[in-house]
Every structure is written in C-alpha cells, then in structure tokens.
TrEMBL record:
SUPFAM superfamilies: Terpenoid synthases
Name of the molecule in the record: Terpene synthase
Alphabetized Gene3D superfamilies for the sequence: Farnesyl Diphosphate Synthase
Family: Belongs to the terpene synthase family.
PANTHER family in alphabetical order: BETA-PINACENE SYNTHASE-RELATED, TERPENE SYNTHASE
Broad class of enzyme this protein falls into: lyase
EC code: 4.2.3.-
Cofactor field: Mg(2+)
Keywords: Lyase, Magnesium, Metal-binding
Length: 307
C-alpha cells in the first residue's frame, strides 16, 4: 500500500487543491490500488466474472448510499466512509459525477475479467474502449472536482469537446501505465491484456509493438494539446479542470517512473520493458507521431478528431 505512493500520485493531479479535500481524494486512490490488487487482478474473483460483479455491486452501492451504514465487506465499508467524506466536502453534482465514473470503472474491470475467464484477447479497438474504463481514469479525473472543491457547469462538462479531452487524458495515462506496470505484471502473470500483448497478438514483434503503442499514445496526446489550446472562452471552473487534466497526464508519467510499486523491479535507474531490455527513463522533446488524423483501425476513438 505504501509503495503505491498515492499521495505523491494525486498531489500531482491537483497541485492547487486545499489540504482537506485533497486528502479525501488521496484516500480513495489508496483504496483503489488496494481493491485493484486484491480483487481485480488477483484473488478468486479475478477470474470469475459473476462473482466479481456481485462484489463490485456491493462496493458501488456502499459508495452511492448516503449516511453511515454497516457493510460486511471491508472494501465496501471503507467505500461507504469515503462516500460520506466526499458528501461533506463537495457539491452533490460533483459527488454524483464521481459515483457514475466509479461505476464505469468497475464495469470496465468486469469486461477485463470476463476476457480473462474466457481466455480472450481483445482486438485493439476493443482494448482501447475497455482500457478507457478499466484503467480507473474516469473516477481518478472525476475526483478533480472534489479535490478542488469546484463544479464545472454541465453545459461545459458534457460538451463533446470536453468529453473528448477527458477521454484523451484517460487513455494517455492508461497507455503510460501499461508501460510502467509491465515488468511488475509480467512477474505476477497479469499481462494477459496490455497494449503490448494486444499488439503482439495481432502479429507484431515485441519491438514494433512497443513503437506502435508509443506512436498511438503520442498521437492522442498531440490531439489533446491541440483541442485544449483552442477551447476559447470557458468558465473559471472549466479552465481549472482542463489545466488539471494536463497535470494528471504528466503527473501520472512522473509518478510511474518513481513509484516503488514499479521501480522495485527495475535495475539501476531503468525499467525492464516489454522487450525484456532494461531502458533508462528519459524524456523526449518530440513525439513519435504527431499526425492530426484519427488512427486507422480504431473507430471507437476516431470521433476525438471531429470535435
């Protein structure tokens, strides 16, 4: 739990947040890593979709139920506590948005576990759709309103452009996490669904799969920057939210390079990547792919280039 570095992680997402709501958000991040490790990735229900669905439904109900309740499941009991913390600190709208994002995350994990149980490797397009949810990015970014004690007006938050920006930020962070976590997950036999294994399953050799995954990530990031930079007039709350989407992207990248959760498997100052080679962690000044056109073969995200 300590090795997740959750406080460092979420402090980078919301660097201007006041302490009390930020700590509440950080508590959920610690909870999320614990639940992900113990229930989603390992343990008996991680290969039993029906049982996971029941477990997740109990946790979700504990979050969405106002007031202190008694729950046998310790994760549900903790989630009920977190829900009360959020309601005391944030607007009902911000809390409801988080509740809905949390449900989407658990649904995405259920899809992932169903694939695992069936021994099914998703197509690239299906994987990206699944990963938008299963990576936990939706509730993590939804926490920005709670941590910052803001409420983005609905007409702005649910506009196609802002929805696209949110999804792009989620996917960039998710693909970065696929890189950060690969060595750890390979050691624990959890690489059955990862951007690299998906591409390899389609016939690409490992080194090309790495390059293609990074090219996809970079193209999405470039699109994010272009769309965000031409947003035009926006409320103070939306500007704050969009700024923190960017903080989340870079914060997740920095955290992933430093977190003991992943670096414990590293040699020196590098990490062992999908090709089995240890690479130094460096920043690049230019993307592998900056084309301003939707990637071929992934229609589920093509609409981002239409907003």
């Amino acid at each position: 739990m300590i090795a997740t570095g959750s406080a460092d992680f979420y402090g980078r997402f919301a660097p201007r947040a006041d302490l009390e709501p930020l700590v509440a958000a950080i508590c959920w991040v610690y909870w999320g890593f614990a639940f992900d490790d113990a229930v989603c990735d390992e343990g008996p229900v991680s290969v039993r979709p029906a049982e996971f669905c029941a477990r997740a439904a109990g946790v979700q109900r504990a979050l969405e139920t106002p007031g202190k309740r008694c729950f046998r499941d310790r994760y549900a009991a903790a989630m009920n506590d977190l829900g009360q913390m959020f309601r005391a600190l944030a607007s009902p709208v911000a809390v409801r948005r988080f509740v809905q994002a949390h449900r989407a995350w658990l649904w995405g994990v259920h899809w992932q576990i169903s694939n695992r149980a069936l021994g099914l490797m998703p197509s690239l397009d299906d994987y990206l759709t699944m990963r938008l949810h299963s990576a936990g990015g939706e509730p993590t970014f939804a926490l920005l309103e709670i941590a910052n004690a803001i409420e983005v007006p609905a007409r702005e938050m649910y506009s196609p452009r802002v929805l696209a920006l949110t999804e792009m930020a989620i996917l960039v962070a998710a693909l970065d996490n696929d890189r950060h976590s690969f060595a750890r997950e390979r050691q624990r036999n959890q690489t059955d669904q990862n951007i690299f294994t998906v591409l390899c399953h389609q016939g690409l050799p490992a080194d090309r799969a790495v390059a293609e995954a990074v090219r996809l990530r970079d193209r999405v990031l470039c699109r994010f920057l272009r769309v965000r930079d031409r947003m035009g007039p926006a409320s103070t709350e939306l500007r704050h939210y969009l700024e923190d989407l960017g903080h989340g992207i870079v914060g997740n990248a920095i955290w992933g390079q430093r977190a003991a959760r992943y670096r414990s498997l590293a040699k020196g100052h590098g990490v062992q990547g999908p090709t089995g080679v240890t690479h130094a962690l460096i920043w690049t000044e230019s993307p592998l792919d900056s084309a301003d056109a939707p990637p071929i073969g992934v229609p589920s995200i093509g609409w981002w280039w239409e907003v």
